[in-house]
Request: fold
Amino acid sequence: MTRLLILTLLMVWSLPVQSREPFPLIHLRVRAHLMQSITNPRLQTTLTEKEARVIFDEVNKIWAQAGIRFELESVDSLQALDLAPKRWYIKDRDWVKATIPTNQFSPTAIDVCFVKDMGPNGFFYGEPVVVCENPEFHKVSGGAKNPVARVTAHELGHVLFLQHRQEHTNLMASGKNGVSLNPQEIKDARKRALEIVGHTVQP
Ligand SMILES: [Zn+2]
Reply:
């Protein structure tokens, strides 16, 4: 009986730390930009500031499993650059990215731009994150209710150096609304999040 008790205690003691206590919260700063364009209406988001704040509330519910919180510093309207319409041979993401005036971005926050229509649901290949307000996706059980929040959370996963993983309920699966992360993804995302915090700490 005593041996069983000791064995049980040892088993509990040897459990990974994260299963016994929550992660210390890591805070990352973000700024949301509502893209505006009269000449290229595909870029002009219909989202409001209030809707953007709701999206980040949902993003934070998704990322709570990793102990990472995106603090929304500001929501502003950002005028897109007046580029010529996209030509067929240009990738949509390249054209959209070229219309965004990145010189107005914050050096201490992750910039997230919302547009109305775009080929991909979202992209991140260096700042900024760009998210389409009308994403196309397949629903999975337990998936996010707010598809724009899911796309935003997925792209922020790429900001945290996570790769695609096509397991259907996973946050990093493409074209779905799953939100789960596995222990390795949580570990990797937290490592990168701490690096970002370290780079942006003000003296
Ligand atoms: Zn992706």
